[in-house]
Amino acid sequence: MIKLTIEVADIATILLMYDTIRIYTSNAENGTYAYLASVPLVTGVSTYTYIHSQGTEDTWYKSTYFNTTNSAESSFSNAARGEEAALYHVITYPEECEFDGAADTIIRKIRRLIGDLKGLNRLYECDGELCSSIHEDGHTVDMGEKGWPVSVSIDGTEYTSLMDPIVQGYQYLTFSGSLVSGTQNACIDIWFHTFTFSDREIYEAYGDAMIPPMVPTDCVTDDHLMLQASIDLLENMTADDLFNDGAVIRDDQTLYDPSPGLRGRNDLLDRLRKQMDALIKECVRSSMHGSSGYLID
What we know:
Layout (H helix, E strand, L loop, with lengths): L1 E6 L3 H5 L4 E7 L7 E7 L6 E6 L7 E7 L16 E2 L16 H14 L4 E7 L14 E3 L4 E8 L2 E3 L6 E3 L3 E3 L5 E2 L2 E2 L2 E7 L4 H10 L13 H24 L3 E2 L4 E2 L2 H31 L8
Antiparallel strand pairs: 1-4, 1-6, 2-3, 2-5, 7-15, 8-12, 9-10, 9-15, 11-12, 13-14, 16-17
Helix pairs in contact: 2-3, 2-4, 3-4, 4-5
């Protein structure tokens, strides 16, 4: 698998004449080059990537600019090799929200408090047959679990804009173009982080956390708010699970019992509440020791 990076020096000028990059490949630098794929040009975007799943370190590439309306095509670029593609080199699909260092630290600490560290998963469908991950609309991919993409590639073209695809409900990715051609689907390669709560949901819970009772406002710290946010998130998750998935189901052969998981979460909630109580007592004690007043005889 080879990753090819194409730099467009003056995208505004190029778009006046062309709307697509065409990629050609050969087994030799000076050999005969055959058409491989096309990558649409985008206003304001100067760097394009293409993943060649069948490419090797001995594969050579050339590119041209192409106009799909009048079939005008530029001359070939110089021959070049791509680079071996790893899991993903860097996160290329944008984050849902950009947080500063302080907010990132708060989110990371809350994740540890509630046991919701991010995982990494991959959806890879390149066999050419219609797959269950593509919805009937032909534009939407189901990642199968809650998460946020870090790398999105369709037929070797990397997607790097929040507007295409659009992430819906932290599970569905809707593309502007069709993913299905006849009875064949596109080659889908999506890496994504998995989680119970997104970074935005965690930071919103932190922002919505209420000041604990009996704690003077000038005594409230990030530790109070992080603990309260953690408690709120776990309580909401428990209430949702009890309502939607809390029943014990038994038949002749199987037994579904969510009770152990719910008990474990309640134990975690109890530990967090005890930490909060200890923090409140220490805060109130410190506030009382620091107070001053007048003795009236």
